[in-house]
Write a structure and sequence with these properties.
single chain, 356 residues, alpha+beta, Heat Shock Protein 90, 64% helix
């Protein structure tokens, strides 16, 4: 019902605009043709006979020639049909002038010229009005085309945004199983050994699962929360590696309101443990998180055996895709291999708005 009312309201508004325009043209004719004459009755009656041909000619250009030929850049056909139209319309304009003079003759006042314009000027006045209609038609159609183009562009951008969100969700879904697979392997090892530390591992894992299931669906989380869950993950790995792990964790984050995409840094740490190699029986990992000049700087370095190639896990691959979708080109991700170390460096712009 509301949709029909909107349509009727729009049609009524268009009708009012057209009526106001042609009433304005009517008064223009009376002023133009009778300027200096006091015989207003004759002028009004004569103008009445000019209006039908003027309106018909104007709408012919407005609804047919302009949208179907001029606006679609069929300039030759537009020019050709315009010439035909002016030739045919010239006959009807002269005929309208003739009938106007004949049927308005009884209204003429003796010794007073009812019209102050000759026939050529009357014809010029009609074509001048048609020219105004042509210009308005071009401007209106151009405006409608611009609105339509803008609407299509907005729909396209909206579709791209929805696709981007779906791709991002898909990448997150891939990261979750990968992360859980690594963590559950740790828990499985303790369960086989019937270790007394198994309950502590389960408790820490439950905290990570809560982060994954509930926080990761948010567009951003506090950097402190991400760091806290990195520490929980490191605690799990410390239990698994025991004395065979040498880890350094440095952070410099004085701003407590910095936001980051969830599960953005943790997979780097995860891959350092998964793909890192023990050198002389010790796995060495160094992690640094700091903020500088409105950027978050993150580095993760792990030991590797000389001449051993680095395997790229699904986590790092998906993180790189997420970075491109989240920050486009406004980020730096460097992965370097040295003789005994593998290092990942990430630089992203920081956001200190409140999390959603």
């Amino acid at each position: 019902m509301m949709e029909h009312l909107k349509i009727y309201g729009k049609l009524l508004m268009q009708l009012i605009i057209h009526l106001v325009f042609w009433i304005g043209i009517y008064f223009f004719f009376t002023y133009y043709l009778g300027y200096g004459s006091s015989n207003t009755t004759y002028i009004n009656n004569f103008t009445f006979y000019l209006m039908p041909v003027t309106i018909s000619l104007g709408y012919f250009f407005f609804y047919l020639l302009i949208p179907k030929y001029l606006f679609v850049k069929k300039h030759f056909l537009f020019a050709l049909y315009s010439i035909y139209t002016f030739i045919i319309s010239f006959f009807f304009i002269v005929l309208s002038i003739f009938y106007g003079m004949v049927f308005s003759d009884h209204l003429a006042i003796e010794d007073k010229t009812p019209l102050t314009k000759t026939v050529p000027y009357i014809i010029f006045g009609v074509y001048f009005v048609v020219l105004i209609v042509i210009v308005l038609g071009f401007l209106i159609n151009n405006y409608k085309a611009t609105l339509k183009s803008e609407d299509l562009r907005n729909k396209f951008l909206e579709a791209q945004l929805q696709l981007k969100e779906q791709e991002l969700k898909y990448l997150k879904m891939q990261i979750h199983p990968h992360f859980l697979f690594n963590t559950l392997n740790t828990l499985y090892g303790f369960a086989l050994k019937k270790s007394e530390k198994t309950p502590d591992v389960i408790l820490k894992l439950s905290g990570l699962l809560d982060y994954i299931l509930y926080q990761v669906n948010k567009p951003t989380v506090l950097l402190d929360d991400e760091i806290e869950h990195i520490k929980n993950y490191i605690s799990l790995e410390k239990i698994r590696f025991q004395e065979n792990l040498n880890i350094q964790f440095n952070q410099n984050n004085s701003n407590k309101s910095i936001l980051v995409p969830p599960m953005l840094l943790l997979p780097f740490v995860e891959n350092a443990f998964k793909h890192g190699a023990r050198v002389n029986g010790i796995l060495s990992i160094a992690i640094t998180i700091q903020t500088k000049d409105n950027y978050l700087l993150f580095s993760c370095e792990n030991s590797r055996k000389p001449n051993e190639s680095k395997k790229s896990g699904i986590g790092l691959t998906n993180i790189h895709e997420r970075l491109k979708m989240l920050f486009e080109h406004n980020f730096t991700l460097k992965i370097s291999e040295e003789k005994e170390h593998f290092k990942t460096f990430l630089k992203i712009p920081i956001n200190d708005e409140q999390p959603v």
